[in-house]
Amino acid sequence: MALVSLNETRLADHVDRLGLEHPPIDLASVDYSVRRPDLFNARYGHVLDYMARVELEVDRNVVELTTLLPDPPEIDRRFYAEVWQPQEIRHGQILDELQVQLGRPAAEPDLTSLGAKMKILGALAHLDPFQDVCRMLYYLTGMATERSAVLAYNLLHDGVVEMGESAVAQTVIAPIRRQEPGHYAFYQLSARGLWSQLAAWQRWMVRRMRSLSFAPVGANNAQQTADFGDMLATLRIDQDVDNFAGQISRVERELLWAHKRGLKVPPYVAKAFREAVELAQVRRAA
User: Fold this and answer.
1) Exposure pattern of 77-89 as b/e (b: 16+ CB <10 Å)?
2) Rounded Cα gap, residues 152 and 143, in angstroms
3) What is the top-level taxon of the source organism (predicted)?
4) What are the sequence ranges of the domains in the chain?
5) First and final CA of the chain: distance in angstroms?
């Protein structure tokens, strides 16, 4: 009980700190000036579109969360309603405005779709033991998503600096990337705390469902998966995709697969990223 209370206190302090130190980015602080818009658009336009869509789809993600977790812990609700959603929506608005100013169409986020699997999980989640399984899946997805974002924004920032586009690097990419690690830390603390409380059958269920449901962030169909693969190629992640997969799933491997000694990357994670790279290559060749 003491360990649970300690973890809850750490989470509450973390969420309070995020809300205080990282309010949504002030739109007045953003400078969309681009020195060479045609070149910038050719290199990073599709990356901006993918990232903007994913960030803007957090409104749908919240609907999914309320379906998946009908009775979430109060700290979870505070995090996604008061910190995560406002920050991520602002990220999406800024990235989308940048691509519009480059002459690209605005992003087209899906804000309403709710798949059959999500509805089934939502029905099962009304059973308390199964809601803990759903919560663990939520934390694992959050960790993978936010870790992917941290790494991708770091690489995007480096590339934008290399192009000499300092306004975008300093007022768009840098402020966004500063907020992502706090989200990752919340999911990691939550996952470690909950995993220690799960029964053996719940842990088995989490492993099984995670292996069947994992997908890269924002990749909900074949076209989006290929788009994700194109983004990996632009950021040069495709040259060592297994290493990238290992970095985003390090804690997941440690928690779920500690009994599998020598496992560097959960196989479903490595497979999903390789498939994204391959789909993008096939589409480019066609």
Assistant:
1) ebbbeebbbebbb
2) 14
3) Bacteria
4) 15-285
5) 58
